[in-house]
Write a sequence for this structure.
């Protein structure tokens, strides 16, 4: 059974803003940095329910510049995608892409006592700027209530300063 103590522990961990702490709580990306013009596998980790309430739906908004996205189906979960236009057309080695998956929605059931990962693959556009951050706003709908991980940190402010930060991916210069 999840006790109020565990919920309090999560809140305390958030308050302490330990950089390693948020890795096990909230909704977070396992790999937090990547380079432009490379493939990127986004592994969204769901660390807990809404309080003790089980998660029934996970919705992830795809940031501009993360293109040709394909979500991975999960056993026991229904998978839906919402497609739409990109802000601009991207040229890839194979084709020009002007639209694609903009939102991914998994529907199933995940107990607060359990942990799970929601995965998609795609390409980071070549014109993304090193030093910028792509945010993957994520909404977790539960049997009772919801968590909206959608806060975009102000420039220079760490995500840990926020109660419900959107999972972020830092764009870094490629290794030469
Ligand atoms: Cu948390």
């Amino acid at each position: 059974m999840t006790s109020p103590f565990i919920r309090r522990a999560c809140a305390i961990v958030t308050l302490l803003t330990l950089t390693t702490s948020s890795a096990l709580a909230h909704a977070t990306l396992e790999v937090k940095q990547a380079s432009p013009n490379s493939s990127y596998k986004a592994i969204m980790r769901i660390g807990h329910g809404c309080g003790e309430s089980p998660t029934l739906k996970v919705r992830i908004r795809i940031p501009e510049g993360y293109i040709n996205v394909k979500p991975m189906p999960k056993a026991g979960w229904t998978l839906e995608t919402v497609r739409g236009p990109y802000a601009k057309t991207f040229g890839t080695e194979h084709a020009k892409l002007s639209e694609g998956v903009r939102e991914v929605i998994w529907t199933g059931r995940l107990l607060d006592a359990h942990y799970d990962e929601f995965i998609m693959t795609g390409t980071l556009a070549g014109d993304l700027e090193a030093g910028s951050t792509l945010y993957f706003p994520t909404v977790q709908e539960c049997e009772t209530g919801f968590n909206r991980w959608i806060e975009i940190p102000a420039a220079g402010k760490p995500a840990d300063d926020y109660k419900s930060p959107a999972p972020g991916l830092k764009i870094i210069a490629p290794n030469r």
Summary: The radius of gyration is 17 Å. The chain has one domain: 26-171. The chain has one helix and twelve strands.
